[in-house]
């Protein structure tokens, strides 16, 4: 696993990957700015008006709990775009990864697995659907975890573990769906849940490093291409007959 991570790190700064890296960083910066501003305004609205609205909806018995939640949200809103950028970065990487999944995977497969059957590019709509679904799930999980972030130690640990699970799941399935149906990719992820979660911890550590985390979509995708190959086992026999028959292989 560490060997796969090292290979992914070395490849993201290689000349063939630099164009993808810069484009992914540009898209990530735009998305972070737009979504962080939107989140900050939503939190500001809740801190100002949301407490009264929810108390009217839930009843006066929730007054104390809503006061605590409003206090937490007020702090988060005060941190503004910086807080939003940190909270949303894992969700952003899921969206960006869905745009560049095939370009990154193609480079990794050509360099490290030239004798094996290449993957099939995902339909654009499928890749975007997976990215949006994971991004929304990430935001939902983080909003649930958010109150615990203000509890010393425990909140950040929960936040980190949630990130590992979400990103490991997303990147592995994107890599696996180049060779398998979505159902088979999800089944393989469930069958190797512990290994993929452990790999997700490495991606979560990467995404927690400021500035460097802008490269997370490229690193995470390259890393999980290696992990999928290792969990699948190499099968050069799938491609050798084509070579012997003279059929061109990309």
What this model shows, in words?
With about 250 residues, the chain is mainly alpha-helical. It has helices spanning about 1-10, 15-60, 65-110, 125-150, 155-175, 180-190, 195-205, 215-230, 240-245. The protein contains nine helices and no strands. The model is unreliable at about 235-250 (pLDDT under 50).
Class derived from helix and strand content? mainly alpha
SSE ordering:
HHHHHHHHH
Strand content: under 5%
Per DSSP E runs of 2 or more residues, the count of β-strands stands at 0
Task: Please describe the biggest sheet, giving its number of strands, its sense, and whether it closes into a barrel.
Answer: none
Question: Which regions have little confidence, pLDDT < 50, spanning 5+ residues?
Answer: 236-250
Q: Radius of gyration from the CA trace?
A: 21 Å
Helical segment count = 9
Broad shape: elongated
The average pLDDT value, as a whole number, equals 77
Question: How much helix is in the residues?
Answer: over 70%
Distance between the termini: 27 Å
From the structure above, extract its key features.
9 helices; 250 residues
Short description:
The protein is mainly α and 250 residues long. It has helices at 2-12, 15-58, 63-112, 124-149, 154-176, 182-191, 193-207, 216-232, 240-244. It has nine helices and no strands.
Give me the secondary-structure topology.
Layout: H1 2-12, H2 15-58, H3 63-112, H4 124-149, H5 154-176, H6 182-191, H7 193-207, H8 216-232, H9 240-244
Helix pairs in contact: 1-8, 2-3, 3-4, 3-5, 3-8, 4-5, 5-6, 5-7, 5-8, 7-8
């Amino acid at each position: 696993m560490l060997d796969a991570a090292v290979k992914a790190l070395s490849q993201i700064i290689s000349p063939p990957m630099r164009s993808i890296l810069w484009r992914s960083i540009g898209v990530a910066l735009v998305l972070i700015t737009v979504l962080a501003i939107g989140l900050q305004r939503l939190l500001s609205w809740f801190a100002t008006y949301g407490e009264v609205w929810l108390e009217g909806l839930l009843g006066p018995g929730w007054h104390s709990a809503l006061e605590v939640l409003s206090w937490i949200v007020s702090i988060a809103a005060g941190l503004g775009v910086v807080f939003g950028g940190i909270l949303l970065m894992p969700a952003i990487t899921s969206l960006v990864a869905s745009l560049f999944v095939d370009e990154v995977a193609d480079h990794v497969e050509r360099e490290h697995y030239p004798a094996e059957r290449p993957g099939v590019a995902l339909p654009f709509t499928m890749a975007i659907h997976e990215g949006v679904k994971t991004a929304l799930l990430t935001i939902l999980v983080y909003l649930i975890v958010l109150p615990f972030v203000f509890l010393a130690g425990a909140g950040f640990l929960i936040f980190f573990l949630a990130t590992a699970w979400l990103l490991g799941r997303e990147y592995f399935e994107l890599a696996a769906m180049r060779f398998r149906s979505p159902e088979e990719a999800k089944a393989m992820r469930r069958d190797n849940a512990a290994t993929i979660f452990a790999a997700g911890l490495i991606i979560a550590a990467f995404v927690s490093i400021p500035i460097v985390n802008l490269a997370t979509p490229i690193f995470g995708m390259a890393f999980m291409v290696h992990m999928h190959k290792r969990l699948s086992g190499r099968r050069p026999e799938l491609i050798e007959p084509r070579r012997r028959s003279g059929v061109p292989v990309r």
